[in-house]
Amino acid sequence: MNPMNSMNHSGMTRELRQLARGFMAAFGLVMLASVFYGVIQSKMLTNRPDNPRRVIAEQTLQRGMIVDRNGVVLATSSPTNVGNRLRRIYPYPEAIGGIGYFSYTHGASGLEASFDDLLRGQWEKQSLWQQLTHDLLHQQLAGGDLRTTLDLRIQRAIADGIGNRNGAAVVISAPDGAVLAMVNHYTLDPNTLDENWGEFGRNRLQLLIRNRVTEGLYRPGSTLELVLLAGMLANGDTLDRVVEEGAGPVSVEGVGLFPCVDEQAATFSDDLSLEQAFAWGCPQVFVEALGQTISVENYDALLRQLGLLDAPTLYEFHTVAGRTPAPLYNTFDMTLAVLGQSHLTVTPLQMARLVAAVADNGSAPPLYIADSYRLTDQRDWQPLDHPLLEKALMREDIADQLREAMRFAAENSPLVGLANDAGLAAEGYVLHGQAGVTYRLDGQMDSWFLGFMDAPDGSTVVVVVLIEDAHSPSEAAVVARDAFRATASNLTDSYE
Fold this sequence. Notes:
Penicillin-binding protein 2a (Domain 2), 5-stranded antiparallel beta sheet, single chain, 39% helix, 3 domains, globular, alpha+beta
């Protein structure tokens, strides 16, 4: 054999082997990538919002219903004129506060987001065989249904009371913690969310999509007097202590003059008991307390103990906490802090949880807004495993004294008394409440009502209302009256 030919043949063999190894390595990389993206990362890729297959699949998915405590449908999927595609329908837009919204392009909020797996039919983990069967046969999942604790009749009564104003209201049954109403007065219709999203964006109205009850952050204003009263009582103060000239307004240099919330009632006397000062929302007594009865060092600890620095737990629902108060360096900072006009911000749900603790001997009930689910192949509702443990926010004796002060306010403040209903009072319902205001930097006022009503059967209903841009401190109390009236009329109804 020619040595030169032998050398050429050997070189070609090495090149072919190297080429074959290269092909094998490339094939191996392709196989590894296929396994990684097809198996390990398949769920991530499938769930990407820009995956056109997912969007098409979502549009043909029979998403489960959301119903109120009596079985009234609050959200469902309905056919469109485009093939077998569906769209989400909200028969009662006033219920959006708790339900939230669902959009194929803009995501979801509220219960639509919290229970997305259930509503999409992925509540129970499928076996590998079930997953393969669904994928190979292109079987469409059917969503399960969700039953809430909301009562549409209470929602509608509150929404009608708020009218075209921006506001929020939450109604809670104590001591079980069921949310009976969560009204968030949007300026949008969830049924036209996709069509009008561009307009919302241009006008920055998308900020109004947030849930004011669980995510709206507001200065507490004079409602902070409930917190300060708890601290004062815990440090040995008494409701009958008399404060000279306690009905006078508080002047804050460069900020303004802060009078009693119920100015007309406060003119009855210059010298007020602590109980009267709370009932009429007179700030002077509480301004004097910070630094004396309540130390500056213990102020933050008091706020945290009463749940105002942490996001409250609402089962499977997104909640937030506001800003932590800034350090109090001088009298000016301390005065603004006591007036609830400083850095501290709270949500209406945080305030409702605090009021619920007062109503329930000092313990905050475990809050939940949905109690049952039903899968597609089931007829009966199955209970959700929501938490049952309460959390003590204050001593029972402090809660008893706060309860006494809030009842005194309901009986002696015409402003707080607006939340009372003569018919309910005649039937044995007992109101406890507080009216408050927050003065905003833009010159507008927010009206607050915090309170609860004891029913003759021993049950209690907590109501917190906030009205933005109010013209009078009384506006929230009037809406609260609608809430108490509607709740008393409908709370005893059983599930359908």
